[in-house]
Amino acid sequence: MKLNKLTKSILLFTVIVNLVITIIYCFNLRIGGGDEILFLEDLKLIQEKGWIHSIEKGISIPYMLLSYLFSFLFTNLQFFRIINSALFLLLVFYFYKRKVNFLFYFCFLFFISTSKVFFSGTNDTIFFLGIIVFLCEVYFLNKNNKWNSSLAISALIIAFFTRQLFWVYFPAILLGFYVIYKNSALKTINYKIPAFLFLVFVAINMPSLLVKKSFSYDQKVPEASVKSNWTQRNYLSQLAINDGKLSNGHHVSWEETDAYLVKNGMNSLPKTTLESAFFDLKLTFTEFFKNLFYASKDGFRQLGLIFFIPFILVLYLNKIKIKDVFIPISTIITLFVLCFILILNIEIRWLIGVFIPLILYYSELKMDSKWFSKFNYLNIFLIFSINVYAIITLSLKLKNQIL
């Protein structure tokens, strides 16, 4: 696919405009909104009670280490968002060093401007950075036998110690190691830096390992008086939504959840995410297809036709080596895992770890056919159109926000 310089300049200009507006909008949002409050409280806990107590309670160690360091440099709590913006620039630099093409930058910058995760004060960015770098390095290994094994494994270790969401990506990670094995690269991995990094994080996690027999992760914990947990609250909320007693995107209260358990028994609601997936299989499969529908809709809004590439390629698996399509397969597996284990509201941001590698895969896909050329042009037109619409709508939101 060939685009002239003027067309490329116009396309790139529009996505950069959208990105800048998104950054300004995110930085003007109230500090502590959404999940940001969790990390603000964790930082306060570290400052007041110390690291050992905080790790015993449960925090995201890699992200809080960065937050703690940045807290000495900035007095404004915006530094949480500054951290993630810096990590975003680090990701851009990573792809720049990898000499990716124009199509990647166009789709990638558009995707970033629609997700907003990279400009909010949560640990999402550092987690996804680790997953993205690992999957992309494995992709480069398989494509041209050039990869930085130390960087790939180190990035994966950071992701592991950042969020328990790591286990949702575990099947994709296993597939990544299968690709490494098929390329005879397991024995050539440089383990020195990854091993040192792993031992450092294990040592830092010792307070949590000694007290809770598990690694330290951030926890959304209700007040001590509450008997239920978030899994139970989410499950009951979905039951209420299905019964028409609650609108989408809302939760029942903690008091309602506790009252339900008292009335129906402590085992009337699942206690863990895995348990909730098998608690009522009829409900699970109903929500699976609902989640898949909403994820497809949001995925199309963020990726355009790129979202459907994995499903198209799966039809040709008998003609393609699995290792050559491991990014699309990883996308499908991760999407299906999320849709299966979540009873309430899939959030498209949880798929960033496979969506960005999928953009890379698409941007370097070479197919000599007229239909694929038309596919590319149509996708660029769709993304450009969505991008222009996003600029208009977000500009109006920003105007109201400032005024």
From TrEMBL:
This is Dolichyl-phosphate-mannose-protein mannosyltransferase. It comes from Flavobacterium terrigena. It comes from the Bacteria. The keyword Nucleotide-binding does not apply. The keyword Transmembrane applies. Keywords: Membrane, Transmembrane, Transmembrane helix. The chain crosses the membrane at residues 12-31, 79-96, 102-119, 126-141, 153-181, 193-211, 299-318, 325-344, 350-365, 377-396.
